[in-house]
């Protein structure tokens, strides 16, 4: 008996790797299965078994799932990744008849693999397309209807997204229509964790384009926090549409996550929307996309309130994502204050604010923006517009500031068109001198209302230059 768990686990890993190497392979060691086997076995003894090579005609994921989930076996891959007809298990005693143990395990796994082979052959007698209408018999959620209705909503949303992104809408809509059909196959009924994966295999077997097949599997990505994102453009768009429909639908039904209760995995869906938008560079306006998804829902609910709730829920998850990426809370708030239209654009602005903070002028300009904000707030009895009558500027510092502001506007307009926020903020750093001189030499709240309004208008103009990017007044010292 090896009492120490970690020592026993290390021995099991070593023995599995040695057994796989003996047949020219590499052991497939799932961390969760390794933990489970370690907990079950006190004195691990390797058993290397074999199964008929004909089963290798099945998708590798089917064989791996069968061996891991049902039998607690470690599969074996070849040096180039192909599955080999071997498995590794562990006996809890050092038997003198280890061959009998091996033969017993081989007899047990054979019917399991035969069942999987049967499911594979039976499922392929019907196409995915022929199963789609049957999804109408499967309830997704009582207020949201069947899985077929969800499928149709996702297809319409994906098509609309494709138009904005310059993708093939027809092809994407077909992928969306086929995306859930594998839920009705015998294989997925037996192994729910293979949903999407089997859809890809069946689609390829039926001659569907590879991009459709890949998108069917990738609709579920990322499957876990920090997991892989879809590699294909179509998969990225379908995954985003799927998550947007789920979020808006479940929120509209009033099933908002509370505490640790999140049965529809909406937090994971929201983080998926964030990662897909930012890391896959999908630049779509978030609020209009959510509104479009909500319009497709047929039951009665407050659409505007739900829209606000879903958007806020996603932005709350965005805060955590950005802080994990190294942003500071005040930097996040500075960008959130201007409500960028897309998550991708939000991240670009955030990166610009992070870079701006390191400029020598940053602290002074942040303080100046706070002062400007306070002055404009105090003047709540008069309406202030960001316009200036240059003939009414009496002092040299205010004349210089207006000239600098106009010059800055011309410069940053070009940069903003290219979403080059970092360079735009960097160019605005040149306002430090004129702004400091203005506050040192000019009385903003002058007795003359016209002079006062003109100076406040000039400050509103300066504030507006920065607010086109972020509210830097929110940056802390």
Write a structural description.
It is elongated, with a radius of gyration of 31 Å. It contains 21 helices and six strands. 60% of the residues lie in helices and 6% in strands. It is mostly helical and 477 residues long. The longest helix is centred in the N-terminal third of the chain and has 26 residues. It folds into three domains: 119 residues, no CATH class; 195 residues, Orthogonal Bundle (Hypothetical protein af1432), CATH 1.10.3210; 124 residues, Isoleucyl-tRNA Synthetase, Domain 1 (Orthogonal Bundle). The strands form two sheets. Strands 1-3-4-2 form a four-stranded antiparallel β-sheet, sandwiched between helices. A two-stranded antiparallel sheet has the order 5-6.
Brief rundown of the structure:
The chain has 477 residues and is mainly α. Helix content is 60%, strand content 6%. It is elongated and about 105 Å long.
List the helices and strands and how they pair.
Layout: H1 5-21, E1 25-27, H2 31-40, E2 45-50, H3 60-71, E3 74-78, E4 83-91, H4 98-123, H5 128-132, E5 139-141, E6 145-146, H6 147-165, H7 169-178, H8 186-190, H9 197-205, H10 210-218, H11 233-252, H12 266-279, H13 286-295, H14 303-324, H15 329-336, H16 343-356, H17 362-378, H18 396-417, H19 421-428, H20 432-441, H21 449-467
Antiparallel strand pairs: 1-3, 2-4, 3-4, 5-6
Helix pairs in contact: 1-2, 3-4, 6-7, 6-11, 7-10, 9-10, 10-11, 11-12, 11-13, 11-14, 12-14, 12-16, 13-14, 15-16, 16-19, 17-21, 18-19, 18-20, 18-21
């Amino acid at each position: 008996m090896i009492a120490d768990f970690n020592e026993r686990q290390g021995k099991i890993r070593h023995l599995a790797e040695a057994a796989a190497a003996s047949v020219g392979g590499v052991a497939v060691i799932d961390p969760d299965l390794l933990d489970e086997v370690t907990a079950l076995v006190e004195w691990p003894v390797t058993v290397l078994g074999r199964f008929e090579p004909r089963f290798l005609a099945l998708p590798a994921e089917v064989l791996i799932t069968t061996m891991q989930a049902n039998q607690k076996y470690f599969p074996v891959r070849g040096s180039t990744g192909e599955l080999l007809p071997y498995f590794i298990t562990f006996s809890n005693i050092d038997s003198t008849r280890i061959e009998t143990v091996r033969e017993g395990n081989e007899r047990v796994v054979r019917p399991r693999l035969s069942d999987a082979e049967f499911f594979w052959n039976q499922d392929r007698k019907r196409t995915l397309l022929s199963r789609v209408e049957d999804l109408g018999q499967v309830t997704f959620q009582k207020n949201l209807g069947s899985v077929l209705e969800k499928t149709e909503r996702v297809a319409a949303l994906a098509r609309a997204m494709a138009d904005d992104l310059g993708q093939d809408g027809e092809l994407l809509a077909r992928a969306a229509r086929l995306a859930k059909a594998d839920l009705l196959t015998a294989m997925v009924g037996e192994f729910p964790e293979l949903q999407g994966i089997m859809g890809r295999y069946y689609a390829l077997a039926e001659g569907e384009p590879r991009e459709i097949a890949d998108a069917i599997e990738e609709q579920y990505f990322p499957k876990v926090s920090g997991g892989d994102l879809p590699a294909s453009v179509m998969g990225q768009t379908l995954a985003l549409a799927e998550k947007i429909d789920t979020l808006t639908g479940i929120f509209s039904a009033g099933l908002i996550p509370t505490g640790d209760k999140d049965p529809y995995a909406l937090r994971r869906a929201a983080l998926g929307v964030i990662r897909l938008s930012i890391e896959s560079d999908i630049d779509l306006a978030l609020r209009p996309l959510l509104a479009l998804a909500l319009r497709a829902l047929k039951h009665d609910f407050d659409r505007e309130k739900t829209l606000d709730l879903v958007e806020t829920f996603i932005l709350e998850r965005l805060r955590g994502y950005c802080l994990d990426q190294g942003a500071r809370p005040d930097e996040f708030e500075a960008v959130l204050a201007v409500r960028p239209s897309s998550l991708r654009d939000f991240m670009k602005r955030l990166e610009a604010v992070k870079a701006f903070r390191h400029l020598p002028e940053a602290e002074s300009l942040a303080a100046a923006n706070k002062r400007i904000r306070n002055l404009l707030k105090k003047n709540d009895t008069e309406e202030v517009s960001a316009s200036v009558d240059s003939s009414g500027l009496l002092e040299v510092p205010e004349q210089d500031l207006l000239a600098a502001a106009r010059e800055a506007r011309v410069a940053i307009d070009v940069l903003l068109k290219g979403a080059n926020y970092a360079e735009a903020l960097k160019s605005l750093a040149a306002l430090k001198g004129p702004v400091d001189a203005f506050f040192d030499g000019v009385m903003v709240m002058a007795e003359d209302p016209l002079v006062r309004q003109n100076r406040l208008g000039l400050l509103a103009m300066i504030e507006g230059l920065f607010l086109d990017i972020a509210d830097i007044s929110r940056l802390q010292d």
